[in-house]
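Appendix C reproduces, verbatim, an entry submitted by the partner laboratory led by Prof. M.T., so that reviewers can inspect both the input and the predicted structure.
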Amino acid sequence: MALGRGKRRAAKVEAVEGDARWAVELRGVRRQYGRGGSAVHALRGIDLKLPRGSFTAVMGPSGSGKSTFLQCAAGLDRPTDGSVRLGGTEITGMSENKLTELRRARLGFVFQAFNLLPSLTVEQNVLLPMRLAGRRPERRRAEELLGQVGLGGKGKRRPGELSGGQQQRVAIARALVTRPDVVFADEPTGALDTRTAAEVLSLLRNAVDGMGATVVMVTHDPSAAAYADQVLFLADGSMADALTGASAGQIAARMTSLTAPAATYAAA
């Protein structure tokens, strides 16, 4: 299995004007927790759209709003103002039941914690999103994905028989099984060693290049972000910058410039 980074595609944050060509669209998205003087403004008017078949990393200092961004974009949290579209579908006003159906059928998730069910086999874990979405499980699809993530022949094993890196590979296969509009990844390599992290990131990269998947990944690691087509930087709930095709060094330098003022203030 090839684990190269693959060819990164150009992807830009553009003026918002929604249609189904875009995997993710946010228009004037604000998220406020609490009211009055104690209110926390987690997002302060985010406008962007991300094309299908792209890999976007989201970075920012602690408290910048990157986790809130992912939650609002994935329909896990509702914005205070603004709208969110996924694959051309407006989700902001959806009921909780409709949102749950949409997430099961059209979104994939990869988290730092693998979230595999220990009582199920690897194959059953991969097929679980299909079952939850009320679809007939496609065993051939599961076998194909397990082969693509380097776990061919391990479908009958339990998660406890696999290494951490192998379990995250299962999680990636599970995220892709429904052919989702978007895969949202939250610190997917945070619990892995450097070598295994590189393999997992290459799988996400190959999912974009080889399968046409769309990946949106929150990370604190410039080396991880360098696998993406573009990196979005959040600061104080606002979009601070975007880099396309950047190296880990360039990404780290931009992160340093975002955190330096806070560090200087704290030291004063």
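The longest helix spans residues 248-267. Additional entries are available on request from the coordinating office.
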